[in-house]
Amino acid sequence: SHVENETKTVIYKRNREERRGRRRRETRTRASQDVAVAVEVDALGLRANEGNWKGILCNLNRDGSPQELPPMYVPDALREWGETLYEWNTLCESLVVETNHDDGSTSNTLTQDVKRQVPLTACESVEIQFETIGRVSTEDFTCRADSEGNFVLASDQITVDNDTQSARFHACFHVSREKRVRFDILLQKYLTSSGAKHHVNVGKAYLEERIQGPLDEATLDKLYEQGLRETNEIANTTRPSEETALSFGVNPLAEDMETDERHVIGLPMDAWLDIYSSSSDPSRLCIGVNMQGAEGKVFSATMQYSDSVLISTSMS
């Protein structure tokens, strides 16, 4: 009957809230314990990121594809010709601070402040202007860095809010000493939607080149001649198909995690997310960030979560 159905609904909701509360308590308990994550941070490698970086930013859609700039930022002449723009000029200021501890050990903290160049109209000041769009610090994540400057930052836990699972991570790959590619991703999945897959909720792809010399006004004027990019250097690169990504095989770290679902999200610059999850246990997750470089080299950063807690990170 209608009353019986309403009663069942109330019981279901109450049981669901009890399960949620239990999971939150268990997660807090696990988080309060020292979960041992074997992490290696190469100090010299981390310092390879220090300095100032002139960059290009391309925001990403849910499926990892390049996101168009709002029409207000596209010049009339380009709009009339049907041209689409995707990218911003950026400036990333990276600083590494070494801290000496009482036990004689030292630690290094990398902080990166990212600014976006503000597009200017002809009637405005020609002085270069930037607006801050984000700060990333290794203090806020579990960090793994290798000797070549590549690093991955992973959230200590997967969070669930209103039945939406979220995982935040950053990956940086050095294609040379003076050039690097970075991805800043907030990955989400709607747990109550049948057949739902992980998607990119917030995604940023950066292509950056080290700035030589002091960061003075003359240098900025030379490097940043215009406030808006009229080329699509990142957006025009290849996004690997699922077939291409799967051809690289199974991530070895996912083989022992008892996952039964795999989903690939293609990203610009020959990169992709390789996501392994469990249909019966959403708290078990393995995320790989991969990028195919020159001469067949593949950059890879992997994060493993069990019971929604980070248990390992790796780079290769």
Q: What does this protein look like?
A:
This protein has 316 residues and is of the alpha+beta class. Helices cover 17% and strands 40% of the residues. The protein has five helices and 15 strands. It has helices at 2-32, 43-47, 76-80, 217-223, 242-246, and strands spanning 51-59, 87-100, 106-117, 130-137, 142-145, 151-154, 159-161, 164-174, 179-190, 199-210, 261-267, 271-277, 285-292, 298-306, 309-315. The strands form two sheets. Strands 1, 2, 3, 4, 5, 6, 7, 8, 9 and 10 form a ten-stranded antiparallel beta sheet that branches. A five-stranded antiparallel beta sheet has the order 11-12-13-14-15. Strand 11 and strand 12 (271-277) form a beta hairpin. The longest helix is centred in the N-terminal third of the chain and has 31 residues, at 2-32. The protein is globular.
Shape: globular
Estimated share of beta-strand residues: 35-45%
CA distance, first residue to last residue: 59 Å
Number of helices: 5
Sheet of most strands = 10 strands, antiparallel
Chain-averaged pLDDT: 84
- The count of strands amounts to 15
Unreliable residue runs: 1-17, 19-36
Structural class of the helix and strand makeup?
alpha+beta
Provide a compact summary of the structure.
With about 325 residues, this protein is α+β, with helices and mostly antiparallel strands.
